[in-house]
Amino acid sequence: AQSVAQPEDQVNVAEGNPLTVKCTYSVSGNPYLFWYVQYPNRGLQFLLKYITGDNLVKGSYGFEAEFNKSQTSFHLKKPSALVSDSALYFCAVRDRGLTGGGNKLTFGTGTQLKVEL
Amino acid sequence: NAGVTQTPKFQVLKTGQSMTLQCAQDMNHNSMYWYRQDPGMGLRLIYYSASEGTTDKGEVPNGYNVSRLNKREFSLRLESAAPSQTSVYFCASKPLADPSSSTDTQYFGPGTRLTVL
């Protein structure tokens, strides 16, 4: 079974400060890991994906995520937050060892990011 | 490209009524998915279609049926709506791609907000 935990319902940060949104995962094998962002009344948009190799993955809009295998974590980061980054962020996982089955993703419960002036 | 489109955007039903949520994608994607999003629970997979002509149950299929009408369209039907089905419903699609590539990710529609009274 595969699962994802996002321990924070909400993260508040001041504009210009660095931000971190936390994610931990559980899979029986090795993971593919994803971050998606959802703006109000919109569908989810893909930000980035961890495949293999480099533990720091760069994505859209200046976001990056750090993969840590020993801590089974995949935290989303940005060096300098913008008010426009305020949105709901979802982490998702897929076990590499699972084939077929539509390549299903398991999503976390989401973290609301609020960036204030 | 319109991407993934969903109709209707909003719907109010009475308990026991039926309705079909429509989803279409114009990206020639192989796989399509239906999710529901509820506060504090993230996205949960209802049904998916790994390829045209196949459908399979996800995590929460009870009370729903699906039809993969053709490669473009994947509909979700509520035969007898219940208040517990009040939710936001998202359709997503995914191309046939190497799982180790960044293009192997899901693309989401804007959602349908359903209220069952």
What would a concise description of this structure say?
Chain A is an all-beta fold. Chain A contains no helices and twelve strands. Helices cover 0% and strands 51% of the residues of chain A.
Describe the structure.
The complex is a heterodimer of chains A (117) and B (117). Chain A is an all-beta fold and 117 residues long. Chain A is built from no helices and 12 strands. Chain A has a single domain (3-116), classed as Immunoglobulins (Immunoglobulin-like, Sandwich). In chain A, 0% of the residues lie in helices and 51% in strands. In chain A, the strands form 3 sheets. In chain A, strands 2, 5, 6, 10, 11 and 12 form a 6-stranded mixed β-sheet that branches. Chain A is globular. Chain A starts with a strand and ends with a strand. By secondary structure, chain B is mainly beta. In chain B, 0% of the residues lie in helices and 50% in strands. In chain B, strands 2, 4, 5, 6, 9, 10 and 11 form a 7-stranded mixed β-sheet that branches. Chain B has a 4-stranded antiparallel β-sheet with strand order 1-3-8-7, with no helix packed on it. In chain B, a hairpin with a 5-residue loop joins strand 7 (64-68) and strand 8 (74-78). The mean pLDDT of chain B is 94.
- Give the terminus-to-terminus CA distance of chain A: 41 Å
What low-confidence regions of chain B span 5 or more consecutive residues with pLDDT below 50?
none
- Strand percentage of chain B lies at over 45%
Biggest sheet descriptor of chain B:
7 strands, mixed
In CATH's first tier, which class of chain A applies? Mainly Beta
Query: Given the structure, what is the number of helices of chain A?
Result: 0
List SSEs of chain B in N-to-C order: EEEEEEEEEEE
Q: Output the CATH homologous superfamily of chain A.
A: Immunoglobulins
Basic shape of chain A: globular
Unreliable stretches covering 5 or more consecutive residues of chain A: none
Q: Can you count the beta strands of chain B?
A: 11
The major beta sheet of chain A can be summarized as: 6 strands, mixed
Q: Bin the strand percentage of chain A.
A: over 45%
Distance between the termini of chain B: 36 Å
- Largest chain interface and its two residue counts? A-B, 26 and 29 residues
Total beta strands of chain A = 12
Helix content of chain A: under 10%
Radius of gyration of chain B: 14 Å
The CATH topology name of chain A reads Immunoglobulin-like
Radius of gyration of chain A: 14 Å
Named at the architecture level, the CATH assignment of chain A is Sandwich
